[in-house]
């Protein structure tokens, strides 16, 4: 995870599903800076055992924007249920680092798997 965190710009903004505040330990919401990027990555590891993660397409747009989409299956550690979702990711690159990262998934499917 430390190697992944190194790809984030020191002033990065990470939005997991929704832009807004989040409670401690909660995955979805906004993170700022590389310390919170570490928190974001830690939350993923703490909450899920990844069964599969597939990237189906990558697209570079204008102004250093990159899009990707795919699908995944995570086992929710707290419940043992599988969380399946398609996903879309949008990244803005600055100084060869990710300065803005937005990740969208089926959050309703997550809520069901987490109960």
Briefly characterize the structure.
The protein is built from 3 helices and 6 strands. It is of the alpha+beta class. It has a single domain, classed as Nuclear Transport Factor 2, Chain: A (Roll), CATH 3.10.450.50.
Tell me what you see in this structure.
The two termini are 27 Å apart. A hairpin with a 4-residue loop joins β3 and β4 (65-76). The protein is 23% helix and 52% strand. A six-stranded mixed beta sheet has the order 2-1-6-5-4-3. It is built from three helices and six strands. The longest helix is centred in the middle third of the chain and has 15 residues, at 33-47. The protein is α+β, with helices and mostly antiparallel strands and 115 residues long. It is globular and about 40 Å long. It has a single domain, classed as Nuclear Transport Factor 2, Chain: A.
List the keywords.
Nuclear Transport Factor 2, Chain: A; six-stranded mixed beta sheet; 115 residues
């Amino acid at each position: 995870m430390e190697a992944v965190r190194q790809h984030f710009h020191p002033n990065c903004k990470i939005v997991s599903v929704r832009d807004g505040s989040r409670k401690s330990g909660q995955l979805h919401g906004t993170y700022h800076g590389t310390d919170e990027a570490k928190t974001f990555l830690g939350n993923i590891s703490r909450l899920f055992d990844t069964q599969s993660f597939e990237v189906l397409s990558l697209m570079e747009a204008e102004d250093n924007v990159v899009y990707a989409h795919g699908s995944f299956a995570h086992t929710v550690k707290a419940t043992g249920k599988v969380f399946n979702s398609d996903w879309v990711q949008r990244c803005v690159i600055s100084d060869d680092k990710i300065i803005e990262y937005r990740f969208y998934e089926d959050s309703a499917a997550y809520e069901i798997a987490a109960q």
